[in-house]
Write a sequence for this structure.
């Protein structure tokens, strides 16, 4: 039920597409891709009312389905990997904090060059907060990029680190769990058919044995997985990830993995024996999210335990028939390390901060705008500067929040600037996709992943706008 403002939006695109009783008809596909999608996307993100934002999102999601870009679960590919039917590559899962449309387009371009379909677009619970990108919006932007780059096939969008806050959990367990369930519901409604549950924050190493240390992790993790299974759209099995060690903390070991997996599976079976378990397991091997900045702001080289990563991946596949171990906090690793991940059959690798750094540190990024962002961060987030932290370390750790604080200003950078940055990001994607050996993974995805078209609902898009 479009409003007057929404009718004004529709009138702008006469001859390109039409909407009749919530059924979209694309009348000029070339014009839709070349011009309409850009202005529609701006309305979808910054429209002045819920109705206009919701309508624009509904149109983009409807168009994506018609043009062949379908939000999907990677579950079946990961099940095939657990059975040993596919191997030899590591799926890149890329967190996009800002310039989301441009980075997503760069990812699609890189993937198309090498016939890659095994890649994931993701955003973490924390990033949703500080980048001001809720799930329905994030999915819309990714699908708009897919339309722009003529992508046909599944689009894997993932909720990363849907995490329990340990201190909040200690104060009010029910409230913290319900809050995460609300985000899960929003994510699935928005097309997040891949979700990484992170209850590793609840691991208590002071407890007497490994099972008891992991108990709150696997019990709450199983409860949240069961909740996901109850919300799944018809025909879709959401790919759920678990985690046994919080990134940046103690390295994981086989005993922890087995304690988590055995008890997670038995707990979930008790809840409902028909519910599928997790498809992958995140482990800690020595990295830290964003890398560890030195006093001058440069990133220190981590001591990554590849032996542990390889061993845990083998146990995951051979004993539990899941796709393997997942490596977090990896984008700032030295270039010469990336080929090791597919060699060790690492299932998935999460990449984020390096792309953020490339934006801020690009010679194409306006210096005056960067200075303005940094000045704002120094004032607004001054309490986050820890004792002994240099200004360079503080800015390195905090500048991710600039993407939300200056969201529309990033969006309104000139096309020349965004194109230049986009090309550099694409070159980085080319390198990473090569090292992670995802060339020709379209063949594996086409054989395993089931395409299920979930039609968007206009009322729902408006409600979540």
């Amino acid at each position: 039920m479009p409003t007057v403002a929404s009718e004004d939006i529709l009138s702008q695109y006469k001859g390109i597409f039409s909407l009749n009783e919530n059924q979209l008809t694309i009348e000029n596909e070339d014009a839709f891709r070349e011009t309409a999608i850009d202005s529609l996307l701006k309305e979808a993100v910054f429209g002045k009312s819920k109705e206009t934002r919701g309508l624009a999102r509904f149109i983009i999601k409807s168009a994506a389905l018609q043009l062949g870009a379908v939000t999907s679960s990677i579950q079946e590919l990961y099940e095939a990997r657990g059975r040993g039917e596919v191997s030899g590559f590591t799926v890149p899962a890329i967190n996009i904090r800002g310039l989301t449309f441009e980075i997503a387009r760069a990812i699609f371009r890189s993937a198309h060059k090498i016939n890659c379909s095994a890649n994931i677009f993701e955003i973490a619970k924390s990033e949703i907060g500080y980048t001001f990108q809720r799930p329905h919006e994030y999915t819309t932007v990714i699908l708009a990029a897919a339309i722009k780059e003529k992508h046909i096939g599944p689009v894997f969008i993932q909720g990363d680190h849907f995490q329990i806050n340990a201190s909040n959990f200690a104060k009010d367990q029910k409230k913290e769990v319900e809050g995460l369930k609300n985000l899960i519901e929003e994510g699935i409604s928005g097309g997040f058919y891949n979700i990484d549950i992170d209850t590793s924050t609840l691991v208590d190493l002071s407890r007497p044995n490994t099972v008891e240390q992991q108990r709150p992790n696997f019990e709450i993790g199983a409860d949240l997985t069961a909740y996901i299974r109850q919300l799944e759209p018809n025909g879709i099995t959401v790919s759920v990830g678990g985690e046994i060690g919080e990134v940046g903390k103690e390295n994981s070991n086989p005993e922890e993995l087995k304690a988590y997996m055995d008890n997670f599976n038995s707990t979930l079976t008790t809840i409902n024996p028909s519910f599928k378990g997790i498809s992958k397991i995140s482990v800690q091997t020595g990295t830290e999210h964003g890398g560890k900045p030195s006093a001058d702001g440069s990133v220190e080289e981590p001591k990554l335990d590849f032996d542990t990563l390889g061993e845990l991946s083998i146990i995951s596949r051979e004993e539990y028939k899941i796709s393997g171990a997942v490596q977090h906090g990896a984008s700032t690793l030295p270039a010469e390390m990336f080929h090791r991940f597919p060699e060790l059959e690492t299932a998935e690798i999460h990449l984020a901060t390096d792309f953020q750094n490339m934006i801020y540190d690009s010679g194409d990024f306006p210096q005056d705008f960067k200075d303005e962002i940094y000045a704002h961060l120094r004032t607004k987030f001054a309490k986050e500067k820890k004792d002994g932290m240099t200004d360079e370390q503080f800015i390195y750790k905090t500048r991710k929040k600039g993407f939300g604080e200056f969201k529309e200003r990033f969006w309104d950078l000139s096309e020349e600037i965004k194109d230049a940055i986009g090309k550099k990001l694409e070159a980085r994607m080319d390198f990473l996709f090569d090292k992670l050996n995802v060339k020709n993974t379209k063949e594996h995805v086409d054989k395993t992943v089931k395409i299920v078209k979930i039609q968007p609902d206009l009322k729902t898009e408006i409600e979540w706008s």
